[in-house]
Amino acid sequence: MPAPAAAGVRLLDVRDLAVSFRTPDGIVEAVRGLSFGLDPGRTLGLVGESGSGKSVATAALVGLAPGAQVTGLALYLGRDLLTLPAEELRAVRGRGVAMIFQSPMTSLHPLYPVGWQIVEMIRAHEPVPTRQARARAIELLGHVGIPRAERRVDDYPHQYSGGMLQRAMIAMAIALRPRILVADEPTTALDVSVQAQILRLLAGLQRELGMAMILITHDLGVAAETADEMLVMYAGRALEQATTPDLFARPSHPYTRALLRSRPRLDAAVARLTPVPGQPPSLIALPAGCPFRPRCAEAVERCAKTPPLVAIGGDEGHDAACWLVGEGTA
Amino acid sequence: MIGLVLRRAGGGALVVWLVASAVFVCYFAVPHDVARLIAGKQASERTVAAVRARLELDRPVAVQYLHFMGRLARGDLGVSFVTQDSVRAVIVRDLPVTASLALGAAALWLSAGLLAGVVAATRPRSRLDRAITTVALFFYSMPPFLLGQLLLFFCFYRLYLAGVELFPPGSYVPLTESPLQWARFLALPWLTIALANGATYARLTRSAMLDAFGEDYIRTARSKGISERRVVLRHALRSSLAPIVTQFGIDLGTLLGGAIVTEVVFGLPGLGREVVQAITRQDLPVIIGVTIFGSALVVTANVAVDLCYALLDPRLRRR
Ligand SMILES: Nc1ncnc2c1ncn2[C@@H]1O[C@H](COP(=O)(O)OP(=O)(O)O)[C@@H](O)[C@H]1O
Ligand SMILES: [Mg+2]
Questions:
Q1: What's residue B32's pLDDT?
Q2: What spacing in Å lies between the alpha carbon of A49 and ligand 2's midpoint?
Q3: Ligand minimally distant from the alpha carbon of residue A27
Q4: pLDDT at B310
Q5: For chain B, which terminal residue's Cβ has fewer other Cβ atoms within 10 angstroms, N or C?
Q6: Hey, what long-range contacts does B129-133 have (CB within 8 A, 24 or more apart)?
Q7: Which chain A residues are within 8 Å of B226, Cβ to Cβ?
Q8: Torsion of CA A44, A36, A233, A307, to 10 degrees
Q9: Residues B297 and B18: beta-carbon distance below 8 Å
């Protein structure tokens, strides 16, 4: 594990992050008031339905949300990424914070060999000769389980399968031993049989390299297996935040409970999904109050006022943004 | 890869053959007695008959066609009715002029168009982008003959009257004779073609680049921490090359067959002007010869484009 940073300085400390986009229809408030922290070797699970702002929130941290207006603080080893000069932020990308994405088929450049793309990554940060970087690329590909890596290194992405491409993406992402790996729905586009392999690979690499991970997923089951802590997002807001065991033991926000119910159950004879009824709200001119209110079976009058994210009674570090679970009510 | 080349080349040969056949029909479609045309109005019936016999116009059409194709296969394009020069010699004489014009203009429009397109695409909806788009649209919609006339008027006559002889009056000096004079004579014609075509390339590049910027792999490239310059040039521009190469092949192929308007406006003795002259003189062999030559160029350009495609995109390569 990398040596811990100076006492009191967290690896990543995000406070009150807000991301919005100016569009012809109005201002899209994709993320509002998001705060979380991350320590070396730990995994934060970012869960929520599609469109809840998970990707935008993490991309905005390293300036990868083009056209976005980003406010708040994102302290990476004490330095605010949101105000970092472009050249310093570039150095953090890939080396401090590396990313893998949902669709491996489209995430690598189709016109360059896989190895070339890993070499480019290495050489963007370290002044090593191409031949040396290439040897490392082969080693990395072998390490993530690409058979005959020394031959596949010159293959183009279309010559790889989806699972192999995601392995190659992972090889590229860990090439510089990043402190944080953002895995944005890394298994969503893959076959079920491959999903578990990729998750195991990620977990193994995380242990080996001691890196922290932000695992974005809309599948609570995936998060449950991998994440130490969870952050449940809805309409760009955090509705519940807790350690993984606490969240599953005492899901407090009605939205979290609805998500848990919507999980396919492997023990059921027929895996059935109970989708959360209704649609997420438009993020343009979102009315005040709990964003989940229109879909919430338990909504009361008070929900028209925005509930703060506060500690629920009982578990330490277990917060929820719901009037019904305020102190004493839970 | 080799199979692809052969298939494309075969298809190209077929197209040239079809064009040649269509052009052959012209011999019979023209409203005049070709032999009379060549011999002249005052010529006696006997002279006309002699001409007819020499050109084999009295033989059956099928025989004429076979002979025509046979000569074509040997590269014999016939002899001008008017000057009695071989059409091949005419093409060999005029092609350097047209090629100088086309290649110089191509270098200009390609560099200017790509640059403008890339700059516009990296700053979408900015003032610079709008300016580039507007200027591009202006030149895109301007007829080349008007553009040529305007350039002539402002850059030649007005400067000339003002005593500045930056561009010499219309003629042509071969590159081998004096590179400087060659460039001075061609500068305005180059500009005429480059402005009109460059606009197309700026628009094409801009839209292809904007498409590329929306791709997942560009986000990946940025997340790797490579420089933005590299993201633009090595990643986004690389993906945008295919449509640009397609357009370029077709444009260059067409242009090499004769830039009619520009050559006429600037009095350049190239293939385009030759064809115009031949049409007014009803000099059929020259019209036919240059037409077939031009179609062969376009077809060659298309084959070249297909090959470039395979070189540019590994997904199209077959092992
Ligand atoms: N460039 C953009 N312009 C406008 N809206 C955007 C843009 N990017 C994302 N959004 C909006 O932000 C919201 C969150 O998107 P995203 O983070 O991709 O969700 P998730 O990853 O949770 O599925 C969505 O409603 C999406 O429409
Ligand atoms: Mg997403």
A1: 67
A2: 9
A3: 1
A4: 86
A5: C
A6: B129/B206, B132/B202, B132/B206, B133/B202, B133/B203, B133/B206
A7: 90, 94, 120-121, 124
A8: 140
A9: no
Query: CA–CA separation, B217 vs B213, rounded Å?
Result: 9
The pLDDT value given to residue B317: 79
Q: What is the pLDDT of residue A1?
A: 46
The Cβ of residue B310 has, within 10 Å, a number of other Cβ atoms equal to 16
Q: How far apart (Å, rounded) are the C-alpha atoms in residues B129 and B96?
A: 37
State the virtual CA torsion across B31, B36, B40, B41 in degrees, nearest 10: -80
From chain A, pick out residues whose CB is under 8 angstroms from the CB of B222: 64, 93
- Cβ count within 10 A of residue B95: 20
Nearest CA, atom 4, ligand 1: A21
The structure's pTM equals 0.89
Q: Do residues A217 and A46 lie in contact, with contact meaning Cβ atoms separated by under 8 Å?
A: yes
Q: How far apart are CA A190 and CA B282, in angstroms?
A: 68
Give the helix, strand, coil percentages of chain B, each rounded to 5. Answer: 80, 0, 20
| pLDDT tens digit at each of 319 positions of chain B | 778 778 888 988 999 999 999 888 877 666 667 787 777 778 888 888 888 888 888 888 888 889 889 999 998 998 998 898 999 999 999 999 999 999 999 999 999 999 999 999 999 999 999 999 999 999 989 988 899 989 888 888 888 888 877 777 667 888 988 899 899 889 999 999 999 999 999 999 999 999 999 999 999 999 999 999 999 999 999 999 999 999 999 999 999 988 999 999 999 999 999 999 999 988 888 999 999 999 999 999 988 998 888 889 999 876 5
Whose CA is closest to A330, among A297, A298, A293? A298
Amino acid at A232: V
DSSP 3-state of A155: coil
Cα separation, B319 vs B315, whole angstroms: 10
DSSP letter for each residue of B7-44: HHHHHHHHHHHHHHHHHHHHHHHSSS-HHHHHH-TT--
Smallest Cα–Cα separation from A16: which of A43, A2, A39, A37?
A37
- List A45's β-bridge partners, or say none: A215, A230
Strand partners, A44: A214, A229
CA-nearest residue of chain A to B213? A66
Q: What number does the ligand 1 atom closest to the CA of A216 have?
A: 21
Helix%, strand%, coil% for chain A, nearest 5: 35, 25, 40
DSSP symbol at B174: -
Query: Is the distance from CB of B315 to CB of B242 less than 8 angstroms?
Result: no
Give the pLDDT mean for A218-231.
91
For chain B, how far is it from start to end, CA to CA, in angstroms? 7
User: Residue A203's CB: how many other CB atoms inside 10 A?
Assistant: 15
Taking the C-alpha atoms of residue A86 and residue B281, their distance in angstroms, rounded to an integer, is 67
Any idea which residue has 């964003």 for tokens? A291
